[in-house]
Design a protein that fits this description.
By secondary structure, this protein is mainly α. It has one domain. The chain has 12 helices and 2 strands. Helix 1 packs antiparallel against helix 9 and helix 2 packs antiparallel against helix 3.
């Protein structure tokens, strides 16, 4: 029983890690304050789930979930050249509300608040990942691949351009760099991996509904990015593990199940507040949140 619980936690850590690493690419490296990242997560989950229920192979479902999220990331990137800072954050929040409303009200497609049950578990070349241990191996491999890809992007000339845009966009423009294209690509790549995380979540839980992708769900993810440190992938890994495991301790304290959720939000907010006051760069961050 304990081992099954540990496997479940490790799978959740992997899902949150993919989601947080992808968000750090747009927020930490390119400086785009994207509060609509949870919408990409939901788009990937619903796209993958609908295709899986229609009998499409898992790998195609996974890829489609990422591509649909990537396309929406390109659309969201369109106003980034004209809108910046807090106003851009509000635009991304509005985008998240739009996607959530579509999930909730397109009953013919999403079944609205009833959600999508019976999502098939992954099967690749005839091998089914029905038990949680085999699913853990699959998602661990995907998580390592995502970390490696994002690390390579961050260390590439494109990653250095993103950091230049984040630090001084005007100077980058003066040097002839296409800052809009850089931010658009970073947001699209970030959205792609968020869609992958959503597809994996849907295939693991085997049931999704709009409540899993509400705006409130961005709080732990943005907390992980800030606490781990902007533009720090190792910091994101550390913060993901800590913020996933600390709230789980509440299960053994004896709190009623009705207050476990609110207590988690309080813990996230408290840790985030302390980090911003005493360690503005997070655990391993390279830049401070402005």
């Amino acid at each position: 029983m304990a081992s099954a619980y540990i496997i479940h936690l490790l799978i959740l850590i992997c899902i949150y890690l993919i989601l947080s690493l992808s968000l750090n690419l747009s927020v930490g490296y390119s400086g785009v304050l994207n509060l609509g990242h949870i919408a990409f997560y939901g788009l990937g989950a619903y796209t993958s789930a609908l295709m899986a229920l229609a009998g499409v192979p898992f790998l195609l479902c996974l890829l489609a979930g990422g591509l649909v999220a990537m396309f929406s990331g390109f659309l969201l990137a369109l106003p980034t050249d004209k809108i910046k800072g807090d106003y851009l954050a509000l635009v991304t929040v509005g985008f998240s509300f739009i996607i959530y409303s579509l999930m909730l009200n397109l009953d013919e497609v999403t079944r609205g608040p009833l959600g999508l049950p019976g999502i098939p578990r992954p099967s690749i070349f005839g091998f089914g990942f029905e038990d949680n241990f085999s699913f853990l191996i699959l998602i661990a491999v995907i998580t390592l691949a995502v970390y490696f890809i994002i690390q390579r992007i961050a260390d590439s000339p494109f990653g250095k351009l993103l950091e230049a845009v984040r630090d001084d966009e005007l100077a980058a423009k003066i040097l002839g760099k296409d800052t809009f294209k850089a931010k658009a690509f970073s947001l699209a790549i970030s959205a792609f991996f968020a869609g992958i995380a959503g597809a994996l979540y849907a295939s693991y839980i085997t049931f999704i509904d709009p409540s899993s992708f509400s705006l409130m769900q961005i709080i732990p993810i943005i907390s992980i990015v800030i606490i781990g440190g902007l533009a720090s992938l190792p910091g994101t890994v550390l913060a993901t593990i800590i913020l996933t495991l600390i709230p789980e301790a509440l299960r053994f304290v004896g709190f009623p199940s009705s207050i476990l959720g609110p207590m988690r939000q309080i813990i996230y907010a408290l840790i985030l507040l302390l980090i911003l006051i005493y360690r503005p760069r997070g655990f391993l961050g390279k830049v401070e949140l402005e």
